Amino acid sequence: MSPTLASVLQVSALVAALALVHRPLGDHMARVYAGTKHSRAERWIYRAVGADPDAGMRWPAYLRTVLAFSLAGVLLLYALQRLQDRLPLSLGFAPLSPDQAFNTAASFTSNTNWQSYAGESAMSHLTQTGGLAVQNFVSAAVGMSVAVALIRGFARARTGELGNFWADLVRGTVRILLPVSAAAAVLLVAAGAVQNFSDVQSVTTVTGQTQHLTGGAVASQEAIKDLGTNGGGFYNANSSHPFENPDGSSNLLEVFLLLLIPFSLPRTFGTMVGSVRQGYAVVAAMAGIWFAGVVAVTLLEAAHPGTAAQLAGGAMEGKEQRFGESASSLFAVSTTMTSTGSVNSFHDSFSGLSGGVLLFGMMIGEIAPGGVGSGLYGMLVMAVVAVFLAGLMVGRTPEYLGKRLGPREMKLAACYLLVTPALVLSGTALAMGTGNGESAMTNTGPHGFSEVLYAYTSASNNNGSAFAGFGADTGFHNTALGLCMLLGRFLPMVFVLALAGSLARQRPAPASAGTLRTDKPLFTGVLVACVAVVAGLTFFPSLALGPLAEGLAA
Amino acid sequence: MTLQTRTPAPTPHTAGTDPVRHGPGPRVAGGLFDPRQLLRSVPDALRKLDPRAMVRSPVMFVVETGSVLTTVLAVTDPGDGFGWLIAGWLWLTVVFANLAEAVAEGRGKAQAATLRRAKTDTVARRRTAHGEERVPGTGLRVDDLVVCEAGDVIPGDGDVVEGVASVDESAITGESAPVIRESGGDRSAVTGGTKVLSDRIVVRITARPGKTFLDRMIALVEGAARHKTPNEIALNILLASLTVVFLLAVVTLQPFAVYAGAEQPLVVLTALLVCLIPTTIGALLSAIGIAGMDRLVQRNVLAVSGRAVEAAGDVNTLLLDKTGTITVGNRQAAEFRPVGTVDVPELADAAQLASLADETPEGRSVVALAQEEYRLRERRPGELTHAAWVPFTARTRMSGVDVAGRQIRKGAAGAVAAWVAEHGGGPDAEVAAEVAEVVDAISGSGGTPLVIAERTGEGVAARVLGVIHLKDIVKEGVRERFAELRRMGIRTVMITGDNAGTAAAIAAEAGVDDFLAEATPEDKLALIKREQAGSKLVAMTGDGTNDAPALAQADVGVAMNTGTAAAKEAGNMIDLDSDPTKLIEIVEIGKQLLLTRGALTTFSLANDVAKYFAIIPAMFAAAYPGLDDLNVMRLSSPESAILSAVVFNALVIVALVPLALRGVRYRPVSADRMLRRNLAVYGLGGLAAPFLGIKLIDLVVSLIPGTA
Fold it and tell me: How close does chain A come to B339, measured CA to CA in Å?
């Protein structure tokens, strides 16, 4: 099979599977979040945290609960890492340094899963399973809750209430993430991923050397790592490690898991606002950008410039032989555009321009399709901006789903849009200006700059992947990146929930022939253009000095 | 006495077609843009450079700060003149923006000057307990009574409490035909500054000096009372946040550039920033708003606030009065339909008698029909010396005459039937059924039935003679107009006092979406509230005092200038021409306002792409030669590339001033088609135009020594 055919088949299979599954899953999620009944297990959880799952929350209450819950997550995770040598299942690992522990706590609570540590040689079983894996579930569920709160803002009228965070959190975890990831874990085990609680095993390799192999609950963590767009691998090598991602089939399954919930949530959105076509317009914009990224990176990688690549028959540096160029490109685009950050190849080794595409995939704000929940709410905020511009051009005060976009709504959307570019640019500038950027680089010239830019883009957008050369484990970067992750996650949530609250108070205006249709291909086009232009204009200079300078130098 | 209402202007005064107006002094011509206005507004534009004023527009404030910065840099380090060129063009960018606003305001000022001329100091004849005293117009208080006779200028706003007079209101409306003002009723309001042409009236002053209608008008057209509208604020927020994003992008660029070994001079970074921030829309935003209000003024409509103009663009439901808007002014008698044993001439005779004193157009048309069709001789009210005329009232819904023991009544079927029954008219089932049949047939065909009954003397039973068929003539072209409105997504509701059957037939003929029959002011108010409960915005026109609650409730309430002070106070717009069809134009102006903002914002953002392709290679191609591939325009030198982008950025503002003042053309098509068209013109156009413009400017700039 030619590589071209292989990549076409691979992408087609993936798209077909997503097309097939997004509908039942999207509808299921809509039912889950609209439901009123509680299972016995859920009731037990609510009693344990002392929450009333039926109490409606206004946006400040919803936000307070989100922030308090996440702060508790950060503190717990920090404590687990700092005390892991004194807790069971320590594997004999020492506690992590304060800055690294903070960085990791921020990273997993913010669904970024940036890893400045190597899991197999630093984290105890208890930290991995009881801390990191738990956050893999709940940080994803938090993202979905906020997205659902925003959907309710659009769907509801004349109410300040956005639902109950505890109910959304518990249901998202128990009824969506747990069952799907359990099924996925079984499939991964079947495909050859490991799943045990064994101690470190020392084996003698073919060449006669000794290797220390750490086992663990790998398959289960792998499942939620991808499903929850977390990205924090059990092993440092992440999804390129054969215990995590044994072969082509597991690879495709993992890409599918990355995209599953982000591409299904628009269906949930459409169902909950009473028009699935609205959801399709959003998903079409997401899919269009994602597909363009896949095509661009696949083609750029297949062009393999340079003598080494031509001799090897492909740009294989940093890629696994068992996946090859196209599966690596597909994984790379999917992981950067879903805010996952797990990798099956090293983005650092991609050609200058395709590295630029991966960077740009994050710079657009992780919305195509983006992280679980965060992708949808990010895209909906972009849609608010697109509706505002396009709505003016049909001569009416812009309305989205019948909700007027007035000064307050635009203020919140504008603030949302400001957060991540501000973090990315000022973080990178601070690192470069203080010399901390240059000292962490492995490469020189524009590629070295790309490493720093990638790190801050990844952290601020809660992606978590890195250009491998970047030496992140320093006090400066652990702290700065940790702050970027926390601010990049929770500041936007403040604006999203405030926006949801302001939308929910409104009574929807009826649609007429004079209203901008937001469920048409034309609007999808406007939305894509808005996303590309806003991110493109913001980041063009920095991209020019990194990937473009590198890629165009040839 | 015949009451003369001023006829509505037959055609709206659209741009350029009717620049010449009557009345004192020339009024501002339509939307045409005169380049000389630019020159005349230069002093105003320079005055606006005051940073305290500039800070109101965050985008342009950033540009001004940049201009100051580059000027300081040019002074401290003169170099080869490049710094001076950039500084000069940045100042020009700010001045051009101020110029746009000044030009827009200038038109309003001309209008205000015209109005001020009407506000000459008058001497009022105030009535006191002992007679009259002469006081200056400015010394009047509310509730003072003043006497005005032919030739007097009315000293202040008020209501006529005594007498009737013809008044020249051209000072305010520009319309030279005099209007009648009389005590009581809906035509009692007079405006200060207008002139009494004949007779004598006593006016009770209702507004304090300085708070009169004329003062409000002057403030409005001058823009003194201008506040930013919600949509303008929302757009400003978006523009400010984009400015912050670009500010960050440029500020953080320096450490990156230092690493690349291509540290940038401050003047270049400032130039980049100014090119990126949305200066085009930032510069024109307030001009667009002022010009929108101005377009209304040109159509003789005064909007109390810009908010109302914006709301007009969003209107979902238009309440239109049938008479004057949908049908030609008045109904006309078309046929006499006798019932029972009565024959046509007998009915025609009675109808004519009953209508002689009825000076309404309907009444006159009955007389005319009787005369033309049935050759009845013309009679005058004066012939019948002992006739007692029974005027029409809203309560009795009948009019008629009592002459020589004979009583004739004419009116709505129900009212006349009640009168007949009251006066001994037996329940003649056959006649009653025939009357009902004829009435229904006329109503069903869209006509208005007027039933005629008579009673020949005391003690004689009253009886119905027949029915007059009054027909409504639907105005030419309204059907198409309503179809247009439907395509724009606007629902039209016809308001009429007719019964449901009549209303339905006219509604069908005119093509309105809905109607409100036998409408009382309360019904109107209820309808508006019902629509608003469904989150719809409602626009209506009104003139009477009883319209005031509905006018106040409506999102866009257009009061007719002929209307009462209460109506004018309640509405948020006043139509000086008192032309109810103008509501449709007001909606279009509102839409045009938003359209222009959206189009220019899109254009402004799309422009940035080309500017990047000009400036980024100019900044970094020396450090990374690969980036020269981005110089797709092949600009001649880095300096020339940067300067060309800055020059383009400044000139495009001037180039778009006429568009901002005139507004983007609005076509009544569906939202989808309009969006597609505007995206193509302003989105793609905005993408392509600067590539061309910057290249052209570069060709010119490269000729300047020192930049090539």
Answer: 49
Chain A residues whose beta carbon lies within 8 Å of the beta carbon of residue B687: none
Question: Which residue of A359, A396, A499, A528 to mutate against B (max B Cβ within 10 Å)?
Answer: A396
| E strands, B193-331, in order | 195-205, 301-303, 317-321
pLDDT value, residue A127? 87
Q: What SS3 state is found at A285? A: helix
B687 inside 8 A of chain A by CB: no
Q: How far is B223 from chain A (nearest CA, A)?
A: 22
CB A410 within 8 A of CB A388: yes
For residue B301, give the 3-state DSSP assignment.
strand
A537 → closest Cβ in B488, B489, B608:
B608
Contact criterion met (CB < 8 Å) for A513 and B670 = yes
Q: Please choose, from the candidates B338, B389, B385, B324, the residue with its C-alpha nearest in 3D space to the C-alpha of residue B359.
A: B389
Name the residue among B248, B260, B535 with its Cβ closest to that of A510.
B535
B697 neighbors B650 (Cβ within 8 angstroms): no
Instruction: Report yes or no: B613 at the A interface, CB cutoff 8 Å.
Output: no
According to the model, what pLDDT value does residue A314 have?
Answer: 72
Q: How many CB pairs under 8 A join A and B?
A: 213
DSSP code, position B419: H
Q: What sections of B77-128 are H helices per DSSP? A: 82-118
B665 touches A at CB < 8 Å: no
User: Quick one: closest CA in B to A426, which residue?
Assistant: B252
Q: Which of residues 414-453 of B touch A (CB under 8 A)?
A: none
Min Cα distance A428 → chain B (Å) is: 8
CA dist B33 and A112 (Å) reads: 56
- Contact list in B for residue A514 (CB cut-off 8 A) is 488-490, 670-671
Kindly report the backbone phi and psi dihedral angles of residue B464, in degrees, each rounded to the nearest multiple of 5, phi listed first.
-85, 135
Number of alpha carbons in the 13 Å side-chain half-sphere of residue B643: 25
* DSSP 8-state symbol, A470: -
**What is the reported pLDDT for B2?**
37
Minimum CA–CA partner of A406 in chain B: B234
Alpha-carbon distance of A514 to A520, in angstroms, equals 14
Q: Assess B260–A contact: CB distance below 8 Å, yes or no.
A: yes
Q: What is the 3-state secondary structure (H, E, C) of A389-434?
A: HHHHCCCCCCEECCEECCHHHHHHHHHHHHHHHHHHHHHHHHHHHH
| Residue of A55, A149, A161 lying closest to A505 (CA atoms) | A161
Respond yes or no on whether ipTM tops 0.95. no
Q: Distance between CA A25 and CA A8 in Å, rounded?
A: 25
Task: Report d(CA B511, CA B478) in Å as an integer.
Answer: 8
* Interface check A532 vs B, CB under 8 A: no
pLDDT confidence band for B394 (50 / 70 / 90): low
Q: For residue A546, give the nearest of A318, A348, A334 by alpha carbon.
A: A348
B321 a catalytic residue: yes
Average pLDDT over residues A434-449: 91
Q: Residue B663: closest CA among chain A residues belongs to which residue? A: A395
Residue-wise pLDDT tens digits, A460-491: 999 999 888 888 889 999 999 999 999 999 99
Rounded Cα–Cα distance for residues A460 and A371 (Å): 13
What pTM was estimated for this model as a whole?
0.85
CA distance A127 to chain B (A): 38
A313-359, pLDDT tens digit by residue? 677 788 888 888 889 999 999 999 998 988 899 888 888 899 999 99
**A95 and A214 Cβ atoms separated by less than 8 Å:** no
Query: Nearest to residue B27, comparing CAs of B118, B114, B133, B142?
Result: B114
